[in-house]
Input
Amino acid sequence: MASWISLLYLFIFSFIYTETQLVPAIFMFGDSLVDVGNNNHLKLSLAKADFPHNGVDFPGKKPTGRFSNGRNAADFLAEKLGLQTSPPYLSLVSATNKSNAFLGGASFASGGAGILDGTDTLFRLYSLGARKLAVVGAGAIGCCPSQRNQNQTGECHEQANYWSLKYNQGFISLLQELKSELKDMNYSFFDTYTLLLNFIQKPAAYGTSK
Ligand SMILES: *[C@@H]1O[C@H](CO)[C@@H](O)[C@H](O)[C@H]1NC(C)=O
Ligand SMILES: *[C@@H]1O[C@H](CO)[C@@H](O)[C@H](O)[C@H]1NC(C)=O
Ligand SMILES: *[C@@H]1O[C@H](CO)[C@@H](O)[C@H](O)[C@H]1NC(C)=O
Output
């Protein structure tokens, strides 16, 4: 589980490939939930995970830059698709490394990342060849410990959750719009919000208790 949570979003896309392989490569965008070490290369970032106990359950038992005791969602997804985890883009130093990465996938995920008006153009991704998008929606951000602290009752912060929902609604409309215009594009949307809220509200149903 990620030990440090900022903006809860990520998205992943991959290029069309042969019939036998689902995708040839994963290009990962997102925040601390899927950062596999980019922030180790950002000297000025405050969002760091290059210290214990991050990594205690990772092969080698050392911090890797993942905000996690072990592997994170990026690693699990790559494993399910039969691919190596895409390397942190900022770790690729040589020109050969970079050209390999653009064929084999690369991770641009960076702890603390957000979406700016200028960087949310999915059309910019489509024109580069992206055809399959897996989008993970924002979770119930108001239920993060830092947000609960702002509620005197210690319950979830309603306004933060409201904005998570608004964000997800906006993202779903954007995807629907894209699909209607770009027929050869496919996407899936993972409803993290509902899933997490179910865990929080009905812990017993999922084998845990309050
Ligand atoms: C980057 O290049 C170096 C030297 O050629 C190589 O040892 C290393 O495995 C490469 N890394 C990746 C991720 O391709
Ligand atoms: C705090 O939690 C209570 C119970 O869920 C909720 O009714 C209230 O609106 C919350 N307050 C804020 C500031 O979100
Ligand atoms: C993508 O969408 C098209 C059109 O809806 C469909 O024919 C195709 O099977 C889809 N491809 C995948 C991999 O889901």
